[in-house]
Amino acid sequence: MIDRLPGALRRALAVFACGVGLALLPAPAAQAQGDLLVAPTRVILDGRRGTEVILSNIGSEEATYRVELELRRMTPEGGLIDVEPDQANAAEQAALEMIRYAPRRITLPPGQPQAVRLSARPGAELPDGEYRVHMAFRAIPRPVRLTEEEEQERGVKLKLVPVYGVTIPVIVRHGRLEVSAALEQPRIARDGDHSELRLTVNRQGQASTYGDLQILRQGTGEVLYVARGLAVYAEVPSREFSLPVGTDELARLNGPVRVEYREAAAAGGGLIAAIDTVLR
Asked: What is the pLDDT of residues 15-61, one digit of tens each?
């Protein structure tokens, strides 16, 4: 099984999977990869009550999935790097130890949903803070029968099989936490026919920020541009964003504008940070 391979080889296979079109992108409410649909795509626990994540098999064949916890750290550029358990810091180790979940292996017939139950049990001496793991749902490949010719061949033959999966963050917020953010240097970068909105989100406090970015025309409040699902995790004080801008959107982004970073609508839509500017 692929899950018994060393971590370095598992990461290499993950890179291979991305190379054949299996990279995962965030979605507002549900996330699909291969024949697996997962909802929600982001879980926040406060240690007092648990929740459920629903897995649905949207394919035409029975499929089996393994459920695991992983550690990942965010970089200032927004990348997530894998952290092996023996390299985890105290907060990461505490996050792994406090999460409880079941089942850890699920077989789903076509069209059949099932819930994974999870909860957090923070220790009595746990410092106030935000703790995060990433829950991975990976398909277990079916055994492949060798042809008669392959059985007669001598030696060892390695065959790479793409492994489909979905990964979501599971965040535990413990104690009294404060967080604030500020937007810095929103601007338009052009490279030929390609344009991007670039800006930095600076974060202070013990918690992460997560929400949607929108640009409004000053004076009218007309929404000119929206980008959803922007996260700055607690381990980084700032994150740089480069967001694609379409030709029609670019034409509208002229004159004085207001750039707002707000909580997702499902979380109340509260204002996290804002700046008035003229995009150059």
From this structure: 333 333 223 333 346 665 568 999 999 999 987 789 999 999 998 98
pLDDT tens digits for range 232-255: 999 999 999 999 999 999 999 989
24 in Cβ contact with 34 (< 8 Å)? no
On the CB side of 185, how many CA atoms lie within 13 Å of its CA?
10
Identity of the amino acid at 4:
R
Report which of 242, 258, 229 is spatially closest to residue 197, judged by C-alpha positions.
Answer: 242
Residue given tokens 């648990």 in the structure block: 50
Residue 250: helix, strand or coil by DSSP?
helix
Out of 2.60.40.10, 1.10.560.10, 3.30.230.70, 1.10.10.10, the CATH code matching 2-174 is: 2.60.40.10
User: Cβ(226)–Cβ(244) under 8 Å?
Assistant: no
Residue 44, pLDDT score: 95
The class of domain 179-278 in CATH terms is mainly beta
- pTM for this predicted structure: 0.81
Rg of the chain over all Cα atoms, to the nearest angstrom: 22
* CATH 2.60.40.10 domain range(s) in the chain: 2-174, 179-278
Structure token pair of residue 24: 């995962």
- Are 257 and 215 spatial neighbours (Cβ–Cβ below 8 Å)? yes
Average pLDDT over residues 126-146: 87
Q: In this structure, what token pair is assigned to residue 181?
A: 């953010």
Rounded to 5 degrees, φ, ψ at 219 are 95, -35
Q: Cα(124)–Cα(64) distance, rounded to whole angstroms? A: 37
Given pLDDT bands bounded at 50, 70 and 90, which one contains residue 160? low
CA dist 128 and 134 (Å) reads 20
